[in-house]
Write a structure and sequence with these properties.
The chain has 334 residues and is of the alpha/beta class. The protein has eight helices and 18 strands. It has two domains: 4-155 and 303-331, Quinone Oxidoreductase, Chain A, domain 1 (Alpha-Beta Complex), CATH 3.90.180; 159-279, NAD(P)-binding Rossmann-like Domain (Rossmann fold), CATH 3.40.50.720. The strands form four sheets. Strands 6, 7, 8, 9, 10, 17 and 18 form a seven-stranded mixed beta sheet that branches. A six-stranded parallel beta sheet has the order 13-12-11-14-15-16, with helices on both faces. The longest helix is centred in the middle third of the chain and has 14 residues, at 156-169.
Length: 334
């Protein structure tokens, strides 16, 4: 893919890190994906050359080996503006990363240069679809040496969303029944596995073509949303919704007394008659990231990676018309 060159922002003073001047501190140039037009979506993505970032207080700079991408990220207000509502384009999108720490900001503790890490950048900063990114150290966790960078980059949003939705907001207990919409997707497959491990009875939903994949990830029943009657599921204790709309409204009527409807697609329009409705935005959590990656290491949790592409081919991959279930991961370094 052709590489555009943004106006050079000028050299910045840095230190020697990792064997070359100013490693990750701004003097060197890097490749990155940028977006400038929200209406254009992924079609407006460009591969350009940018100055490497500098670490702020409590930041680290990470040499990105792999980055996950969430398809609706370009619709989030935080992608386009800062916390005061000011435009911050051109933006380097991407929140999930796995890589190696190359520089520490002033006051940063808990991580060291050369350490393998993975995690989630702040949604108002993004930046992981690039060769280097500056991230708050608290948003990262160590990535064990036996976990591949591609696997590490696929975990943060899907894994944390599943964990927080089930346990922090859904208060899942062993023996409860869980209806997981989109059970074959990147988030739904994580929800299914974690809920099954916790002792839940899992009913997955999705398209007919997703049935076997949902069952392979641990669902004990499957509802074809195009052909089966959702109401035939009967009462459940927890609904984990990634779809919204009519499916969410109908799901609210299935929740037993004291149960919970958990949504990651915005505020619920219909609440359970005698239960809770919770919508939430995922947050980075060091301890939860460590719990998730340990489950990957010991085989209790499998990733759901749909497409892996290089950074050079990322724009084409994001604009493909082919349906690729699972997580899209960009392998930034070989």
């Amino acid at each position: 893919m052709s590489l555009s060159t943004d106006a050079y922002e000028g050299p910045t003073q840095g230190a020697t890190v990792g064997g070359r001047p100013d490693e990750g501190l701004g003097r060197c140039r890097m490749k990155a994906i940028v977006v400038t037009d929200q209406a254009a979506g992924t079609a407006g993505m460009r591969l350009v050359e940018r100055t490497e970032p500098q670490p702020a207080i409590n930041d680290v700079v990470v040499q990105v080996h792999a980055s996950g991408f969430t398809w609706d990220e370009l619709t989030w207000p935080s992608t386009w503006t800062d916390r005061l509502g000011r435009d911050r384009t051109p933006v380097i999108p991407g929140q999930e990363l796995a890589g190696v720490v190359t520089a520490l900001g002033y006051g940063t503790t808990g991580l060291s240069v050369g350490q393998r890490v993975f995690g989630l950048s702040d949604s108002y900063r993004g930046g992981t679809l690039a060769e280097y990114v500056a991230v708050e150290a608290r948003n990262l966790a160590p990535l064990p040496g036996d976990v591949d960078f591609t696997v590490g980059a696929s975990l943060p949003i899907s894994g944390l969303t599943a964990w927080q939705g089930l346990f922090d907001h859904g208060r899942l207990q062993a023996g409860q029944s869980v209806l997981v919409h989109g059970a074959a997707g990147a988030v739904g497959s994580m929800v299914t596995q974690l809920a099954r491990e916790a002792g839940g009875y899992i009913i997955g939903s999705g398209r007919a073509a997703d049935r076997q994949k949902a069952l392979d990830f641990g669902a004990q029943e499957f509802v074809d949303l195009d052909n089966d009657a959702l109401e035939d599921v009967g009462g459940v204790d927890l609904v984990f919704d990634v779809i919204g709309g009519d499916i969410q409204k109908r799901s609210a009527g299935l929740i037993r007394a004291g149960g919970t409807l958990v949504s990651i697609v915005g505020p619920t329009e219909t609440r359970p008659a005698d239960g809770l409705a919770v919508d939430f935005v995922v947050e980075s959590d060091h301890a939860q990231l460590s719990e998730i990656v340990q489950r990957v290491r010991d085989g209790r949790l499998r990733t759901n990676i749909g497409n892996v592409s290089t950074l050079d081919d990322a724009v084409a991959a994001f604009n493909s018309t082919a349906r690729r279930p699972g997580k899209t991961v960009i392998r930034v370094r070989p």
